[in-house]
Amino acid sequence: MESRTRILNPFGRYFVKVKWSAPGPERPAGGRLTITAVDGPLRNGDCVRGCGQCKEPLEDDSRTCRPGWTMADRLRLLELWDRWHLNDMRPGCEHQRDQGWDQRRIDETMPDTSYGLHFEGQKSRTWNLLVEVMRDEHPRGLLCEPCPECGYRYGTGWLCEAVPDEVLEELFSFPETIINPAWI
């Protein structure tokens, strides 16, 4: 699929920009998918609520969907956003992703979204994930550890994960806005 952008407006003054940059000279390994939003854009460049990765409004079922949108569509957009946004900035290889390295917690009693110190002797604050700490700091640390299949050391670069054509087709099949937002 060639490069393209689509502005979505699932409800109210909440707008989502879906941008696909196809592979090219500056990105030969694969394209890049970026998804951002603005909730209540104002003409002065500000916004009423939030912008960037403000995905939470998609889950708010108190907001009435625009024609052509359903709550299921909004949740599906959120699911695709969570899974594929910045597909060319993956810290782990496909094997490490398949093995769930990025979901293994340091402290199993705390959520992975917990930020701080998670074990005695931890040098700096991190998210509660083993991919955030090295083996010399924690016996199960995964940062910079090699993949048992291909040898790629987790977190030592950004890898590109190809976005399936079906995903791009689905994202670009959501109804495009008929409202011209102040910005997005």
List the keywords.
184 residues, alpha+beta, four-stranded antiparallel beta sheet, two-stranded antiparallel sheet, 3 helices, 14% helix
Structural class by SSE content: alpha+beta
SSE pattern, N- to C-terminal: EEEEHHEEH
Tell me the distance between the termini: 23 Å
Counted beta strands: 6
Number of helices: 3
The side-by-side strand order for the widest beta sheet comes to 1-2-3-4
DSSP helix fraction: 10-25%
Describe this structure in words.
The chain has about 180 residues and is an alpha+beta fold. It has two domains: about 5-90 and about 160-170, no CATH class; about 90-160, no CATH class. Helix content is about 15%, strand content about 20%. It contains three helices and six strands; from the N terminus they run E-E-E-E-H-H-E-E-H. The chain has helices spanning about 70-85, 95-100, 165-170; strands at about 5-10, 15-20, 30-40, 45-50, 115, 125. The protein has a four-stranded antiparallel β-sheet with strand order 1-2-3-4, with helices on one face. A two-stranded antiparallel sheet has the order 5-6. The longest helix has 14 residues, at about 70-85.
What secondary-structure arrangement, pairings included, does this model have?
Blueprint: E1 4-11, E2 14-21, E3 32-41, E4 47-52, H1 71-84, H2 94-98, E5 115-116, E6 126-127, H3 165-171
Q: What would you say about this model in short?
A:
With 184 residues, the protein is α+β, with helices and mostly antiparallel strands.
